[in-house]
Design goal:
318 residues, alpha/beta, UDP-N-acetylmuramoyl-L-alanine:D-glutamate ligase, nine-stranded mixed beta sheet, four-stranded mixed beta sheet, globular
Amino acid sequence: MKVGCLGELLVEIMRDRVDEPLGVPGIFVGPFPSGAPAIFADCLARLGEEVFFVGAVGNDDFGTLIVERLQKDGVDISGIKRLNDFTTGVAFVTYFSDGSRKFIYHISRAASGQIFPQDVPDNVFLRLDFLHVMGSSMLINDQCREAYLKALKLVKQGGGKVSFDPNFRPELLGKERARELFQPILRESAVVFPTAEEITVLTDESDVDRACAKVLSQGPEIVALKKGKAGSVIYTKDGKWEIPAFPVEEIDPTGAGDCYCAGFLAGLAQGLPLQEVGRLANAVGALAVTKKGPMEGAPTLKEVRDFMARAERREHRC
């Protein structure tokens, strides 16, 4: 499978302890290569699929850190620009005991936001099997949005499919505006990867089952609802499947949802039955939280298979 994505490339700098707000002096750790589409791309490449990335970084050490990491893990970085007049994007983040996070972003006026329709090469996107759309990237600014719309048009023209992770960030845009901007993408998507909160934003429907049915009625074939520690639920017009989580010790939850999406597309590429696709995706998402840093837990396919085999042996012993 050849997959394309575009969007924010940034470094993440995080508090070293939970429940420490960003607005007080304290200790941070990092930088770690990050950005939702970059985490997805890196993980999918590590799982053995072809990934082409369109993005921008500054001509600085942070940019070098990101690009070298993606290249090392097998992402095609020929679509990434190095800019002299913009610095690489940065996200500061802190975690809280209840599982919530808070971000401060430097994206829209950094290199991360310098993505334009002309950066999307026709010859590449016409040959993609999938375009993976990140809602956070669409909300950066108008030119990023236009670049995504061009990419979507090319992929559909070439017979490819679209997967969509709303990845809603209230820090970037309000719910009503996000819903308005996401609707055209939703209608063109084959697979949608929302959380319970995001499916409510997409549909303005508080009941999750009804919200997923509403999304399926608009065109998508699959809704894979991400539930974190509770696993995931796969919805199609033929039914609903609860996919249990793999219990792990959580070190850093950032990027788990992006890795889940990568695992899901990797499972589809392998032609697995849908419930096995969900199980593979859950395993990839679980491994992603076991190391500090958004990309650090992204596994190879062998690591995922070994992890799943160990889990299966434990289940049999019980």
